[in-house]
Each structure stands twice: as structure tokens, then as C-alpha cells.
Specification:
Elements (H helix, E strand, L loop, with lengths): L3 H17 L4 H20 L14 H4 L3 H26 L9 H39 L1
Helix pairs in contact: 2-4, 2-5
Length: 140
């Protein structure tokens, strides 16, 4: 009987994770917003990078946002950048450079996971507001 409890908890946790990772329209839109913000920050970083790299083609679109786009992208990517600095000595390169297929896979997976977490939190908040509104209307 004691072994049923951990198995039941693990099954319940797997169900929660599976529901959180389901692709839904709101999560895809959040993913597009996050990916756009991350790419805008990457393009905006060109303005203060050293070297002779050519100006990115979309720099004119991102230039009005400047430092704000870069800072927001850094905040969104902070966990991935932390992992990047830990793993770099082992793999010999940065994940955030997206120079290889596996780096793109990790980068995309992180962005999708972040979009799913944000979408799930918004969904839970919406359900909480609905139940709070129902209980308030029941009291009236």
C-alpha cells in the first residue's frame, strides 16, 4: 500500500506536466511573442557589440526599442544563459549562439517550455478569477 502512494503521485504529476505542455492557441501566441522578443534583443545587441560584424537586416525595426529590447530578452533568457555558462566548458560552445542543430533544439525547447509555464499560470489565474467572481455573486 505504501508503494501505491508514490506511484499515484507520480501519475498525477505526469498528468499535470502533460496538460501544461499541450499546444494551445494562447501558448503558441505567447511563444511567438517570446521568440520575437528574444530575437529583437539579439538584433539590438549588435549596437554595442565589438567587432566588424555587418549590421543585421532587421536592425532598423529594432533600433527604436534599443536597450529595452536587449534587457527584456536577457531577463527572459536568464535561465538558459545560466545553463549556457555552466555547460560551455563541457561542450566547447554556447547554446545561445544557436550554431548547431542541438543548440537550436534546446533554445526552442526552452522558449516553448517558458511559453507553456506562462500560459498555464495565466490559465490558472483566469480560473481563479472566475471562481472568485462566482463565489462573490453567490453571496450577493
Amino acid at each position: 500500500m505504501s508503494q501505491e502512494r508514490p506511484a499515484r503521485r507520480l501519475t498525477r504529476l505526469a498528468g499535470i506536466v502533460a496538460r501544461a505542455l499541450q499546444p494551445k492557441l494562447d501558448r503558441v501566441l505567447i511563444l511567438a511573442l517570446i521568440a520575437g522578443t528574444a530575437e529583437a534583443g539579439r538584433i539590438a545587441a549588435w549596437s554595442f557589440a565589438d567587432g566588424m560584424a555587418p549590421q543585421p537586416a532587421a536592425y532598423g525595426l529594432v533600433a527604436p526599442f534599443g536597450m529595452a529590447a536587449w534587457l527584456l530578452s536577457i531577463v527572459l533568457l536568464m535561465p538558459l544563459l545560466t545553463l549556457d555558462s555552466i555547460v560551455r566548458p563541457l561542450i566547447g560552445g554556447f547554446i545561445s549562439d544557436r550554431a548547431t542543430w542541438w543548440a537550436n533544439l534546446i533554445y526552442g525547447g526552452y522558449l516553448y517550455g517558458l511559453a507553456c509555464v506562462i500560459g498555464s499560470l495565466l490559465e490558472a489565474a483566469k480560473e481563479g478569477f472566475k471562481s472568485e467572481f462566482r463565489s462573490a455573486s453567490d453571496r450577493a
